[in-house]
Q: What sequence folds into this?
Protein backbone atom coordinates (compact mmCIF):
# COMPACT_ATOMS: atom_id res chain seq x y z
CA UNK A 1 0.00 0.00 0.00
CA UNK A 2 1.16 3.51 -0.78
CA UNK A 3 1.53 5.42 2.44
CA UNK A 4 0.78 8.95 3.52
CA UNK A 5 3.13 10.19 6.20
CA UNK A 6 2.87 12.90 8.84
CA UNK A 7 6.18 14.48 9.88
CA UNK A 8 6.01 16.23 13.24
CA UNK A 9 8.31 17.92 15.72
CA UNK A 10 8.92 15.87 18.86
CA UNK A 11 10.28 18.72 21.00
CA UNK A 12 9.72 22.52 21.13
CA UNK A 13 10.15 23.11 17.41
CA UNK A 14 13.22 23.74 15.23
CA UNK A 15 14.10 20.05 15.22
CA UNK A 16 15.16 20.21 11.57
CA UNK A 17 11.75 19.33 10.11
CA UNK A 18 12.41 21.49 7.04
CA UNK A 19 15.47 19.49 6.04
CA UNK A 20 13.77 16.14 6.68
CA UNK A 21 10.56 17.09 4.83
CA UNK A 22 12.59 18.38 1.88
CA UNK A 23 14.42 15.05 1.58
CA UNK A 24 11.30 12.92 1.98
CA UNK A 25 9.28 15.08 -0.44
CA UNK A 26 10.97 13.36 -3.39
CA UNK A 27 8.81 10.30 -2.57
CA UNK A 28 5.44 12.10 -2.39
CA UNK A 29 3.04 13.75 -4.85
CA UNK A 30 2.04 16.44 -2.43
CA UNK A 31 3.24 18.13 0.79
CA UNK A 32 0.57 19.76 2.94
CA UNK A 33 0.95 22.09 5.92
CA UNK A 34 -1.90 21.63 8.40
CA UNK A 35 -1.38 24.22 11.15
CA UNK A 36 0.63 27.16 12.43
CA UNK A 37 1.54 30.14 10.31
CA UNK A 38 4.58 32.26 9.60
CA UNK A 39 5.72 31.73 13.20
CA UNK A 40 7.42 28.65 11.71
CA UNK A 41 10.89 28.87 10.20
CA UNK A 42 11.86 25.78 8.22
CA UNK A 43 15.38 25.81 6.85
CA UNK A 44 16.11 23.92 3.68
CA UNK A 45 19.55 23.78 2.08
CA UNK A 46 19.37 23.35 -1.66
CA UNK A 47 22.90 22.98 -2.95
CA UNK A 48 24.86 25.90 -1.58
CA UNK A 49 21.73 28.01 -1.00
CA UNK A 50 19.95 28.23 2.33
CA UNK A 51 16.24 29.00 2.20
CA UNK A 52 13.96 29.62 5.16
CA UNK A 53 10.29 28.85 4.59
CA UNK A 54 7.64 30.16 6.95
CA UNK A 55 4.31 29.30 5.35
CA UNK A 56 5.06 27.44 2.17
CA UNK A 57 5.53 23.68 2.58
CA UNK A 58 9.10 22.38 2.55
CA UNK A 59 8.34 20.25 -0.51
CA UNK A 60 8.41 23.30 -2.78
CA UNK A 61 11.97 22.69 -3.99
CA UNK A 62 10.88 19.53 -5.81
CA UNK A 63 9.39 20.82 -9.06
CA UNK A 64 6.88 17.98 -9.50
CA UNK A 65 5.53 18.10 -5.93
CA UNK A 66 2.24 19.91 -5.24
CA UNK A 67 2.15 22.00 -2.07
CA UNK A 68 -0.92 22.75 0.01
CA UNK A 69 -1.55 25.26 2.78
CA UNK A 70 -4.49 23.70 4.58
CA UNK A 71 -7.47 25.19 6.39
CA UNK A 72 -5.74 24.73 9.77
CA UNK A 73 -3.03 27.25 8.87
CA UNK A 74 -3.34 30.90 9.98
CA UNK A 75 -2.45 32.83 6.86
CA UNK A 76 -0.93 36.30 6.73
CA UNK A 77 -1.45 37.28 3.05
CA UNK A 78 1.46 39.70 3.06
CA UNK A 79 3.86 37.11 4.46
CA UNK A 80 2.59 34.57 1.93
CA UNK A 81 3.04 36.89 -1.05
CA UNK A 82 6.49 37.90 0.14
CA UNK A 83 7.53 34.27 0.43
CA UNK A 84 6.19 33.51 -3.06
CA UNK A 85 8.13 36.48 -4.44
CA UNK A 86 11.30 35.33 -2.68
CA UNK A 87 10.97 31.87 -4.21
CA UNK A 88 10.10 33.10 -7.70
CA UNK A 89 13.05 35.52 -7.62
CA UNK A 90 15.30 32.60 -6.71
CA UNK A 91 13.99 30.57 -9.64
CA UNK A 92 11.54 28.30 -7.79
CA UNK A 93 8.27 28.34 -9.67
CA UNK A 94 5.19 28.18 -7.44
CA UNK A 95 2.41 28.94 -9.93
CA UNK A 96 0.05 26.07 -10.61
CA UNK A 97 1.44 23.82 -7.89
CA UNK A 98 0.92 25.78 -4.69
CA UNK A 99 -2.59 25.91 -3.24
CA UNK A 100 -4.20 27.71 -0.31
CA UNK A 101 -7.38 26.56 1.39
CA UNK A 102 -10.37 28.84 0.96
CA UNK A 103 -11.06 28.13 4.64
CA UNK A 104 -7.74 29.35 6.08
CA UNK A 105 -8.22 31.95 8.78
CA UNK A 106 -6.45 35.23 8.12
CA UNK A 107 -3.95 37.14 10.21
CA UNK A 108 -4.59 40.89 10.13
CA UNK A 109 -2.39 43.69 11.51
CA UNK A 110 -4.65 44.08 14.54
CA UNK A 111 -3.76 40.55 15.64
CA UNK A 112 -0.12 41.59 15.96
CA UNK A 113 -1.12 44.76 17.82
CA UNK A 114 -3.24 42.86 20.34
CA UNK A 115 -0.53 40.24 20.80
CA UNK A 116 2.07 42.94 21.43
CA UNK A 117 -0.11 44.62 24.05
CA UNK A 118 -0.88 41.31 25.78
CA UNK A 119 2.72 40.15 25.86
CA UNK A 120 3.82 43.49 27.24
CA UNK A 121 1.20 43.36 29.95
CA UNK A 122 2.37 39.89 31.02
CA UNK A 123 5.84 41.23 31.82
CA UNK A 124 8.03 38.41 33.17
CA UNK A 125 5.19 35.95 32.59
CA UNK A 126 5.05 36.57 28.83
CA UNK A 127 5.02 33.63 26.48
CA UNK A 128 7.79 34.99 24.30
CA UNK A 129 5.81 34.57 21.09
CA UNK A 130 7.13 35.20 17.60
CA UNK A 131 4.94 38.38 17.42
CA UNK A 132 3.31 37.24 14.20
CA UNK A 133 -0.27 37.56 15.48
CA UNK A 134 -0.73 33.80 15.60
CA UNK A 135 -2.46 33.51 19.01
CA UNK A 136 -5.02 36.29 18.47
CA UNK A 137 -5.83 34.99 14.96
CA UNK A 138 -6.61 31.52 16.35
CA UNK A 139 -8.59 33.17 19.16
CA UNK A 140 -10.78 34.83 16.53
CA UNK A 141 -11.18 31.45 14.82
CA UNK A 142 -12.32 29.77 18.03
CA UNK A 143 -14.43 32.83 18.83
CA UNK A 144 -16.16 32.42 15.44
CA UNK A 145 -15.43 35.92 14.29
CA UNK A 146 -12.22 35.43 12.27
CA UNK A 147 -11.96 36.43 8.63
CA UNK A 148 -11.06 33.71 6.16
CA UNK A 149 -9.47 33.48 2.74
CA UNK A 150 -12.91 32.98 1.16
CA UNK A 151 -13.92 36.40 2.55
CA UNK A 152 -11.16 38.02 0.48
CA UNK A 153 -12.67 36.57 -2.68
CA UNK A 154 -16.04 38.17 -1.90
CA UNK A 155 -14.99 41.81 -1.50
CA UNK A 156 -18.55 42.93 -0.88
CA UNK A 157 -18.94 43.22 2.85
CA UNK A 158 -15.24 42.76 3.53
CA UNK A 159 -14.66 46.36 4.63
CA UNK A 160 -17.59 46.18 7.03
CA UNK A 161 -16.25 42.99 8.59
CA UNK A 162 -12.80 44.51 8.99
CA UNK A 163 -14.16 47.71 10.52
CA UNK A 164 -16.21 45.72 13.01
CA UNK A 165 -13.17 43.70 14.03
CA UNK A 166 -11.04 46.83 14.34
CA UNK A 167 -13.66 48.38 16.63
CA UNK A 168 -13.57 45.29 18.77
CA UNK A 169 -9.76 45.17 18.88
CA UNK A 170 -9.53 48.88 19.62
CA UNK A 171 -11.62 48.29 22.75
CA UNK A 172 -9.05 45.72 23.83
CA UNK A 173 -6.11 47.95 22.88
CA UNK A 174 -7.65 50.87 24.77
CA UNK A 175 -7.90 48.74 27.90
CA UNK A 176 -4.16 48.05 27.60
CA UNK A 177 -3.41 51.73 26.99
CA UNK A 178 -1.94 50.76 23.60
CA UNK A 179 -2.01 52.69 20.31
CA UNK A 180 -5.31 52.29 18.46
CA UNK A 181 -5.63 50.94 14.93
CA UNK A 182 -6.89 52.78 11.85
CA UNK A 183 -9.11 50.40 9.83
CA UNK A 184 -8.75 52.21 6.48
CA UNK A 185 -5.26 51.06 5.41
CA UNK A 186 -6.23 47.52 6.42
CA UNK A 187 -9.39 47.68 4.31
CA UNK A 188 -7.52 48.82 1.25
CA UNK A 189 -4.67 46.31 1.65
CA UNK A 190 -6.97 43.35 2.27
CA UNK A 191 -9.32 44.29 -0.58
CA UNK A 192 -6.32 44.05 -2.89
CA UNK A 193 -5.19 40.65 -1.53
CA UNK A 194 -8.24 38.89 -2.97
CA UNK A 195 -7.05 39.49 -6.53
CA UNK A 196 -3.46 38.59 -5.66
CA UNK A 197 -4.35 35.33 -3.91
CA UNK A 198 -7.19 34.17 -6.16
CA UNK A 199 -5.01 31.99 -8.38
CA UNK A 200 -3.81 29.98 -5.38
CA UNK A 201 -7.14 29.46 -3.64
CA UNK A 202 -9.06 26.19 -3.90
CA UNK A 203 -10.99 23.86 -1.64
CA UNK A 204 -7.86 22.00 -0.55
CA UNK A 205 -9.84 19.27 1.20
CA UNK A 206 -11.42 18.36 -2.15
CA UNK A 207 -8.00 18.55 -3.79
CA UNK A 208 -6.36 16.26 -1.21
CA UNK A 209 -9.19 13.75 -1.15
CA UNK A 210 -9.01 13.64 -4.93
CA UNK A 211 -5.29 12.90 -4.78
CA UNK A 212 -5.92 10.18 -2.21
CA UNK A 213 -8.60 8.59 -4.42
CA UNK A 214 -6.19 8.69 -7.35
CA UNK A 215 -3.65 6.71 -5.30
CA UNK A 216 -1.21 9.59 -4.88
CA UNK A 217 0.76 9.96 -1.65
CA UNK A 218 0.79 12.96 0.65
CA UNK A 219 3.25 14.12 3.26
CA UNK A 220 1.61 16.08 6.07
CA UNK A 221 4.08 18.67 7.32
CA UNK A 222 3.84 19.75 10.94
CA UNK A 223 5.15 23.07 12.17
CA UNK A 224 6.32 23.81 15.73
CA UNK A 225 6.52 20.68 17.87
CA UNK A 226 4.52 18.43 20.17
CA UNK A 227 5.59 20.29 23.31
CA UNK A 228 4.22 23.50 21.73
CA UNK A 229 0.89 21.87 20.83
CA UNK A 230 -2.06 23.81 22.25
CA UNK A 231 -3.57 20.73 23.94
CA UNK A 232 -0.57 18.55 24.66
CA UNK A 233 2.31 20.98 25.07
CA UNK A 234 3.65 22.85 28.07
CA UNK A 235 0.57 25.06 28.41
CA UNK A 236 0.34 28.06 28.54
CA UNK A 237 3.83 28.30 27.00
CA UNK A 238 2.66 26.82 23.72
CA UNK A 239 1.50 27.98 20.33
CA UNK A 240 -2.20 28.20 19.51
CA UNK A 241 -2.60 25.31 17.08
CA UNK A 242 -2.58 21.50 16.99
CA UNK A 243 1.01 20.76 16.04
CA UNK A 244 0.87 17.05 16.91
CA UNK A 245 -0.14 14.50 14.27
CA UNK A 246 -3.82 14.64 15.31
CA UNK A 247 -3.97 18.12 13.78
CA UNK A 248 -3.36 16.76 10.28
CA UNK A 249 -6.92 15.50 9.80
CA UNK A 250 -8.77 18.61 11.03
CA UNK A 251 -6.19 20.96 9.59
CA UNK A 252 -6.59 19.54 6.08
CA UNK A 253 -10.07 18.11 5.88
CA UNK A 254 -8.97 14.52 5.35
CA UNK A 255 -10.03 11.51 7.40
CA UNK A 256 -7.70 10.30 10.19
CA UNK A 257 -7.52 6.91 8.44
CA UNK A 258 -5.53 8.55 5.65
CA UNK A 259 -2.65 9.37 8.00
CA UNK A 260 -0.93 6.01 7.62
CA UNK A 261 2.30 6.66 9.49
CA UNK A 262 3.93 9.31 11.63
CA UNK A 263 7.59 10.25 11.74
CA UNK A 264 8.86 12.35 14.63
CA UNK A 265 11.82 14.69 14.14
CA UNK A 266 13.99 15.22 17.23
CA UNK A 267 17.35 16.82 17.79
CA UNK A 268 19.99 14.66 19.47
CA UNK A 269 19.68 17.25 22.26
CA UNK A 270 16.93 19.78 23.01
CA UNK A 271 16.28 23.47 22.34
CA UNK A 272 13.49 25.86 23.13
CA UNK A 273 12.92 29.45 22.04
CA UNK A 274 10.66 31.68 24.11
CA UNK A 275 9.64 31.33 27.74
CA UNK A 276 8.38 28.33 29.66
CA UNK A 277 9.65 25.29 31.52
CA UNK A 278 12.61 23.42 30.05
CA UNK A 279 13.63 20.64 32.47
CA UNK A 280 16.86 19.66 30.74
CA UNK A 281 18.13 23.18 30.00
CA UNK A 282 21.94 23.14 30.29
CA UNK A 283 24.07 25.27 32.58
CA UNK A 284 25.34 28.50 31.02
CA UNK A 285 28.63 27.05 29.69
CA UNK A 286 27.13 24.03 27.94
CA UNK A 287 24.11 26.05 26.81
CA UNK A 288 26.42 28.50 25.02
CA UNK A 289 28.57 25.70 23.61
CA UNK A 290 25.60 23.87 22.09
CA UNK A 291 24.19 27.14 20.74
CA UNK A 292 27.45 28.03 19.08
CA UNK A 293 28.04 24.58 17.56
CA UNK A 294 24.41 24.16 16.52
CA UNK A 295 23.96 27.77 15.40
CA UNK A 296 20.89 27.82 17.56
CA UNK A 297 19.30 31.11 16.65
CA UNK A 298 15.65 31.33 15.62
CA UNK A 299 15.01 30.98 11.87
CA UNK A 300 12.05 33.37 12.20
CA UNK A 301 12.99 35.86 14.90
CA UNK A 302 16.77 35.43 15.19
CA UNK A 303 16.43 35.01 18.96
CA UNK A 304 19.02 32.80 20.67
CA UNK A 305 17.51 29.39 21.39
CA UNK A 306 17.85 27.96 24.89
CA UNK A 307 19.83 24.72 24.71
CA UNK A 308 19.98 21.56 26.79
CA UNK A 309 20.16 17.77 26.84
CA UNK A 310 17.90 15.16 25.30
CA UNK A 311 14.77 14.83 27.40
CA UNK A 312 13.83 11.13 27.25
CA UNK A 313 10.53 11.33 29.20
CA UNK A 314 9.32 14.29 27.12
CA UNK A 315 10.20 12.50 23.87
CA UNK A 316 8.49 9.30 25.06
CA UNK A 317 5.41 11.38 25.88
CA UNK A 318 5.52 12.92 22.38
CA UNK A 319 5.88 9.42 20.86
CA UNK A 320 2.64 8.38 22.54
CA UNK A 321 0.71 11.54 21.63
CA UNK A 322 1.68 11.17 17.97
CA UNK A 323 1.82 7.38 17.73
CA UNK A 324 5.29 7.70 16.25
CA UNK A 325 6.26 4.94 13.84
CA UNK A 326 9.77 6.24 13.32
CA UNK A 327 12.23 8.91 14.36
CA UNK A 328 14.54 11.22 12.44
CA UNK A 329 17.31 12.27 14.82
CA UNK A 330 19.00 15.49 13.70
CA UNK A 331 22.11 17.51 14.54
CA UNK A 332 24.07 14.58 15.93
CA UNK A 333 27.23 16.37 14.76
CA UNK A 334 26.59 19.22 17.21
CA UNK A 335 27.46 16.85 20.08
CA UNK A 336 30.80 15.83 18.49
CA UNK A 337 33.03 17.72 20.93
CA UNK A 338 31.39 16.77 24.22
CA UNK A 339 33.39 14.28 26.31
CA UNK A 340 30.25 13.36 28.23
CA UNK A 341 26.63 13.68 27.12
CA UNK A 342 23.89 13.72 29.74
CA UNK A 343 20.59 12.07 28.69
CA UNK A 344 17.51 12.59 30.82
CA UNK A 345 16.00 9.22 31.78
CA UNK A 346 13.40 10.33 34.33
CA UNK A 347 11.93 13.11 36.42
CA UNK A 348 11.52 13.37 40.19
CA UNK A 349 9.19 15.81 41.88
CA UNK A 350 9.50 16.53 45.60
CA UNK A 351 11.77 13.50 45.86
CA UNK A 352 9.45 10.97 44.17
CA UNK A 353 9.67 9.70 40.61
CA UNK A 354 7.05 11.06 38.21
CA UNK A 355 5.47 8.51 35.92
CA UNK A 356 3.53 10.92 33.76
CA UNK A 357 4.47 14.07 31.89
CA UNK A 358 3.09 16.85 34.14
CA UNK A 359 0.24 18.92 32.69
CA UNK A 360 1.15 22.21 34.33
CA UNK A 361 4.07 24.53 33.81
CA UNK A 362 4.53 25.09 37.55
CA UNK A 363 5.27 21.41 38.25
CA UNK A 364 7.34 21.06 35.12
CA UNK A 365 9.53 23.96 36.13
CA UNK A 366 10.21 22.35 39.52
CA UNK A 367 10.87 18.75 38.55
CA UNK A 368 14.40 17.38 38.78
CA UNK A 369 15.68 15.61 35.71
CA UNK A 370 17.58 12.37 36.33
CA UNK A 371 20.48 11.91 33.95
CA UNK A 372 22.45 9.03 32.59
CA UNK A 373 25.84 10.20 31.34
CA UNK A 374 26.89 8.85 27.96
CA UNK A 375 30.46 8.77 26.82
CA UNK A 376 30.99 11.26 24.01
CA UNK A 377 32.60 10.17 20.74
CA UNK A 378 34.81 13.29 20.52
CA UNK A 379 35.37 12.86 16.82
CA UNK A 380 33.62 14.41 13.84
CA UNK A 381 30.39 12.82 12.62
CA UNK A 382 29.76 15.77 10.34
CA UNK A 383 28.49 14.62 6.96
CA UNK A 384 28.57 10.89 7.76
CA UNK A 385 26.13 9.06 5.46
CA UNK A 386 26.29 5.43 6.64
CA UNK A 387 25.40 4.00 10.03
CA UNK A 388 28.50 1.78 9.98
CA UNK A 389 30.72 4.86 9.71
CA UNK A 390 29.43 6.37 12.96
CA UNK A 391 31.70 6.01 15.98
CA UNK A 392 30.62 3.24 18.33
CA UNK A 393 29.80 5.72 21.11
CA UNK A 394 27.46 7.64 18.79
CA UNK A 395 25.76 4.39 17.74
CA UNK A 396 25.30 3.49 21.41
CA UNK A 397 23.84 6.91 22.19
CA UNK A 398 21.34 6.64 19.31
CA UNK A 399 20.41 3.04 20.15
CA UNK A 400 19.67 4.05 23.72
CA UNK A 401 17.65 7.05 22.54
CA UNK A 402 15.59 4.85 20.23
CA UNK A 403 14.99 2.24 22.95
CA UNK A 404 14.04 4.88 25.48
CA UNK A 405 11.55 6.53 23.12
CA UNK A 406 10.35 3.06 22.03
CA UNK A 407 10.56 4.12 18.39
CA UNK A 408 12.93 2.92 15.66
CA UNK A 409 15.23 5.47 14.05
CA UNK A 410 14.70 5.83 10.29
CA UNK A 411 17.03 8.77 9.63
CA UNK A 412 20.02 10.39 11.31
CA UNK A 413 21.09 13.85 10.23
CA UNK A 414 24.75 14.80 10.47
CA UNK A 415 24.73 18.21 8.80
CA UNK A 416 22.40 20.79 7.30
CA UNK A 417 22.72 19.59 3.71
CA UNK A 418 20.44 17.08 2.03
CA UNK A 419 23.16 14.50 1.65
CA UNK A 420 24.42 14.73 5.22
CA UNK A 421 21.94 12.05 6.16
CA UNK A 422 21.98 8.41 7.19
CA UNK A 423 18.97 6.44 5.96
CA UNK A 424 18.23 3.34 7.99
CA UNK A 425 16.35 0.66 6.09
CA UNK A 426 13.08 -0.75 7.48
P1 LIG B 1 12.62 23.33 11.67
O1 LIG B 1 11.86 24.51 12.16
O2 LIG B 1 12.27 22.08 12.42
O3 LIG B 1 12.52 23.14 10.19
O4 LIG B 1 14.15 23.63 11.98
P2 LIG B 1 14.94 25.02 11.74
O5 LIG B 1 15.16 25.20 10.30
O6 LIG B 1 14.26 26.13 12.47
O7 LIG B 1 16.28 24.76 12.54
C1 LIG B 1 17.13 23.69 12.23
C2 LIG B 1 18.52 24.26 11.89
O8 LIG B 1 19.48 23.22 11.96
C3 LIG B 1 18.62 24.82 10.49
O9 LIG B 1 19.53 25.88 10.50
C4 LIG B 1 19.17 23.65 9.69
O10 LIG B 1 19.87 24.07 8.54
C5 LIG B 1 20.10 23.03 10.69
N1 LIG B 1 20.27 21.58 10.58
C6 LIG B 1 19.34 20.63 10.25
N2 LIG B 1 19.87 19.40 10.39
C7 LIG B 1 21.13 19.57 10.82
C8 LIG B 1 22.18 18.66 11.20
O11 LIG B 1 22.02 17.46 11.18
N3 LIG B 1 23.34 19.21 11.63
C9 LIG B 1 23.55 20.56 11.70
N4 LIG B 1 24.72 20.99 12.14
N5 LIG B 1 22.59 21.44 11.34
C10 LIG B 1 21.40 20.95 10.93
P1 LIG C 1 9.10 25.73 13.72
O1 LIG C 1 8.00 25.24 12.80
C1 LIG C 1 10.24 27.04 17.70
C2 LIG C 1 7.25 29.29 19.97
C3 LIG C 1 7.53 30.74 20.28
C4 LIG C 1 6.82 30.85 21.62
C5 LIG C 1 5.59 29.99 21.41
C6 LIG C 1 4.34 30.76 21.02
O2 LIG C 1 10.15 26.50 13.03
O3 LIG C 1 9.61 24.60 14.54
P2 LIG C 1 3.60 31.91 18.74
O4 LIG C 1 4.22 33.01 17.96
O5 LIG C 1 3.44 30.63 18.00
O6 LIG C 1 2.32 32.29 19.42
O7 LIG C 1 4.64 31.63 19.95
O8 LIG C 1 5.92 29.07 20.39
N1 LIG C 1 7.32 28.93 18.53
C7 LIG C 1 8.30 28.22 17.99
N2 LIG C 1 9.45 27.75 18.53
N3 LIG C 1 9.92 26.75 16.43
C8 LIG C 1 8.77 27.18 15.89
O9 LIG C 1 8.34 26.79 14.66
C9 LIG C 1 7.92 27.99 16.66
N4 LIG C 1 6.73 28.60 16.44
C10 LIG C 1 6.37 29.16 17.59
O10 LIG C 1 8.91 30.98 20.39
O11 LIG C 1 7.60 30.25 22.62
MG1 LIG D 1 12.19 26.45 12.86
A:
Amino acid sequence: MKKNLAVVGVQWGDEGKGKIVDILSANFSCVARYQGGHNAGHTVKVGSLTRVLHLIPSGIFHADVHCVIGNGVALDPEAFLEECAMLEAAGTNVAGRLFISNRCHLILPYHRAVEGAMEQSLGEGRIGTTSRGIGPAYEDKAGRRGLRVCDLLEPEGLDAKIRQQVDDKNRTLRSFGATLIDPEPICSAYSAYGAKLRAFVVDTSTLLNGLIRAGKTILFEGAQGTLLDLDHGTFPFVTSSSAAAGGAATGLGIAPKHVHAVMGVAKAYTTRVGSGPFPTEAEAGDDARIRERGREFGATTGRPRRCGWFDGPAARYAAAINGLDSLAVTKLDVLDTFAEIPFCVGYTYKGSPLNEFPPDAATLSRIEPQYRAFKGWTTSTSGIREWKDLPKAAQDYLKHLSEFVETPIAMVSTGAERDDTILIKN
